[in-house]
Amino acid sequence: MELAPERHRLLLELLAATGLRISEAIALQRLHVQLDSPEPEVCVRRALVRGRIEPPKTKHGRREVRLSDSLAAKLRAHLAAQPDQNSTAILFPNESGTPLDPSNLRPRVLKPLVRQAGAPWAGFHTFRHTFASLHLRRGTNLLQLSRALGHHSPAFTLTRYTHLLPGEEAPALDLRCGSQEGNALAV
């Protein structure tokens, strides 16, 4: 993140911290970020697909994704500094106030950044993958992760990210009555 150009750093941080697709993040409007509630969140309601703003492909794509307090504070400052204070203004606009073009961002911003970071293979989806990886490492419930990613089922999420789960085999369970696991079971 430190290597990212200042102008695009917050967008990239949002991608990594929320797991949003680039098409969803660049279509966000001010009204889609709820920053003053006790649990700040971003509401995914649309995406930029082939140059057109469209609703998500499925009902699962319409979702709320929680924001950390620190990211919410950065977004508050970002919104305060924007000239267009209209609720329908694009959250991350280009110079003309319209949504950024991912096919323009990729060669001009992302590719030089990932080369400089020593990860030339990385793309926008890498931020989404990182989000899922970190959640799985922290033990986030698979259903919650699936909902945050906008997947149609936890089974799809598991299939997509199973390689990130630790270990090849399930550990042995000790069902003796004196064991900790055995106490939780009514055998």
Give the secondary structure arrangement, pairings included.
Layout: H1 6-18, H2 22-25, E1 33-34, E2 41-44, E3 47-49, E4 52-54, E5 63-66, H3 69-81, H4 102-116, H5 124-138, H6 142-149, H7 154-161, H8 180-184
Antiparallel strand pairs: 1-2, 2-5, 3-4
State the oligomer: single chain
Sheet with the most strands, sense and barrel status: 3 strands, antiparallel
Element pattern in H and E: HHEEEEEHHHHHH
* CATH-level-2 architecture: Orthogonal Bundle
Strand arrangement in the largest pleated sheet = 1-2-5
Number of strands: 5
Strand composition percent: 5-15%
| SS content category | mainly alpha
Low-confidence stretches: none
Mind explaining what this structure looks like?
By secondary structure, this protein is mainly alpha-helical. The protein has one domain (6-164): Orthogonal Bundle (hpI Integrase, Chain A), CATH 1.10.443.10. It is 43% helix and 9% strand. The chain has eight helices and five strands, in the order H-H-E-E-E-E-E-H-H-H-H-H-H. It has helices at residues 6-18, 22-25, 69-81, 102-116, 124-138, 142-149, 154-161, 180-184, and strands spanning 33-34, 41-44, 47-49, 52-54, 63-66. It has a three-stranded antiparallel beta sheet. It has a two-stranded antiparallel sheet with strand order 3-4. Helix 1 packs antiparallel against helix 3 (69-81), helix 1 (6-18) packs across helix 5 and helix 6 packs across helix 7 (154-161).
